[in-house]
Amino acid sequence: MNIEKLKAAVKGAVIPVFDPSFKASTEALLWNGRKQSAQPQLIVKASCIPDVIATVRFAAEAGLRVSPRGGGHNFSGIAQQDGIVLDLGALNRIWIDRSARIAEVGPAATNADLASALEAQGLAFPVGHCASVPMSGYLLGGGFGWNSGSWGYGFSNVESIDVVLADGVLRRVSETEHAEIFWAARGAGPEFFGVVVGYRLRLKPLPRAITTVVRVYPLTAVKGVVAWMKAAMDVVPNFVEFTAAMQSAPGSDGSAKVLLAIATVFADDPAEASAIHGRIAALAPEGAFDVQPEMPTPIGVLYEIIGQFFPVGHRYAVDSAWSADGAEDYVAGLAEGIAAAPSAQSFALATVLSPSRPTPPDAAFSMFGPVWGCVYTIWEKPEDDAENLAWLRRTTDGVASSVLGHYVGEADLERPERRNACHAPAALEKLRAMQKRYDPQGIFLRAVPAATPAKGAQAA
């Protein structure tokens, strides 16, 4: 392996395993404090698209796998394999054509950066719910983001994608150019057989009255709250996002649990937003501990609120699912798990989507439903890994009968069956066939990495 040849070919940094900065660079690859056991042989910090092309061609010659990394904000460590980690962090360009309502963005442009740049132009996009997640993993996984009930999933608003495949050739793919690759890049997640280096996005007008009302209920009221959420979503516009958050009561040590019913309206007029909140309130069940008044929540504020639930440096595991029939039982199962969570920081979400939400186009993103739920397991000490992972899997296995499939962006990908269930069977079969055709050497084959076990802990 001629590393000097690669160094001469790229403008960015090439960090081999014997480099003094290698250990620190590897530690910084993943946002999750729970690191993975797989160790790369090289880290390439691309400074431009030609660096990406050179790295892919080098990997093909050397027989190494390539793990593209946008921001390392994944829970399973799928961006850290045992070959070359291709760090795309410098490819974070955002260019906006306001009149055409088009943006061109790099893979490392984050949700927060894009939302802020668009807000300044009076525009919007269904960016993801977590501010620091970049477009790379978010849109490759499909993009279940803000106001998806009205705007559609993120991938539904992608006009074209620039990709570098295993042959080291840069292609722009769309519905009319390399349509099959375009199909795959919209939702394949870790099954994708290339590196995305740019997106061209269709934008939306920015709603001028984004407001939120929060009602706090005892966790035991979960079935009644979910029934109310479903009834409310039947009578309000599809630009309402309604989520139940099941968590420890604020200020408690985890012994007290509550359910927050969070209704966010993406309206264009304050009076309209207030009227919609009134319709939701008219159906609300009795027994709320607290009702917070309607408050303005532009996307930047929503990010500030959500960011409080994801402390940097903590250890994370996650699983998510789509549900349909029996949604009350599904969410009640999540609530039952939260009541027994070993960590007070762990929480679960359940979002009821509008029945009039847009139908997504045909793409690799092929698993979805009217109710989405997610369990976030958060803890601090390595010695607690096994207990928290076991709890997560007991909780999610306990609701399996109500599950249609999983969302690849927040699925427990350390379990192979989860990864397979992130796509409809026919879509997964098509993706696997395309992998063999476009990446016969398996350069982009992403094995499911194992987390580094805590000292003395048993595998969950």
From TrEMBL:
Domain of life, source organism: Bacteria
Protein name (database record):
FAD-binding oxidoreductase
User: What Pfam families does its record include?
Assistant: FAD_binding_4
Q: Where is the FAD-binding PCMH-type domain?
A: 36-206
- InterPro entries associated with the record: FAD-bd_PCMH, FAD-bd_PCMH-like_sf, FAD-bd_PCMH_sub1, FAD-bd_PCMH_sub2, FAD-linked_Oxidoreductase, Oxid_FAD_bind_N, Oxy_OxRdtase_FAD_BS
Q: Tell me the keywords, alphabetical order.
A: FAD, Flavoprotein, Oxidoreductase
Listed Gene3D superfamilies: 3.30.465.10, 3.40.462.20, Uridine Diphospho-n-acetylenolpyruvylglucosamine Reductase, domain 2
Can you tell me which family this protein belongs to?
Answer: Belongs to the oxygen-dependent FAD-linked oxidoreductase family.
Q: Which PANTHER family match?
A: BINDING OXIDOREDUCTASE, PUTATIVE (AFU_ORTHOLOGUE AFUA_1G17690)-RELATED (PTHR42973), FAD-BINDING PCMH-TYPE DOMAIN-CONTAINING PROTEIN (PTHR42973:SF39)
Cofactor(s) annotated in UniProt: FAD
